């Protein structure tokens, strides 16, 4: 029986493909007391430098695929990685508390994230909280030697299923292969939703339970017009949605001619 998931229509369009579960890595760690703070600071510095190099590549790809304005989010990420106040506090925590780089990074960035998220009437600061979270995940991955998912490596037609998509994830999506996506959380104004509209990838966000209700390889229809996803649809439903997708594509082509 077809399973229907409801969410927020984030990017217009209809797509059908097999599910690709974009699983986030395990970034758990053990807090340790260290004897050589300078060595920990050097570890952190190396992780930050590698993250900067990766983000430069992602920013370039985003500029080519999305345009300079949308790629500005990665300039913000690079600015965070060069923020002397943020990393000054992290380095001080390593020195003063004699803790490993992972513990210091999480403690200080969590503090900034909570502070920015508390500014509920300031959308800009709320976005900065998300940027810090994204950047922290990348640096933490390098500290732990854990690979961060790379959507750019997808080379077959899929619908991405994820708890959330970071700006870095979305900027690497190749619309030749990624036909649509659905996430557990997010809204129409999130970075990933905005980028999906720029890339013209049908998307449903804020479904609440996509990652627990969909399994790798299942057929999924993404209805970015009504904010729904159909899991393991019948042949009749697939045919119906293919017809709707064609009608939408034809209408869109007419709109472009009228511009």
TrEMBL record:
PROSITE patterns recorded: PEP_ENZYMES_PHOS_SITE (PS00370)
Organism superkingdom: Bacteria
Keyword presence, Manganese: no
Keyword Transferase set for record: yes
Biological processes per GO annotation: phosphoenolpyruvate-dependent sugar phosphotransferase system
Domain Phosphotransferase system enzyme I N-terminal span(s) in chain numbering: 6-128
A Pfam entry, by short name: PEP-utilisers_N
Keywords attached to this entry: Coiled coil, Pyruvate, Transferase
GO molecular function: transferase activity, transferring phosphorus-containing groups
Parts forming coiled coils: 41-72
Domain (PEP-utilising enzyme mobile): residue spans on this chain: 155-227
Family to which this protein belongs: Belongs to the PEP-utilizing enzyme family.
Name of the protein in question: Phosphoenolpyruvate-protein phosphotransferase
Organism of provenance: Ligilactobacillus salivarius
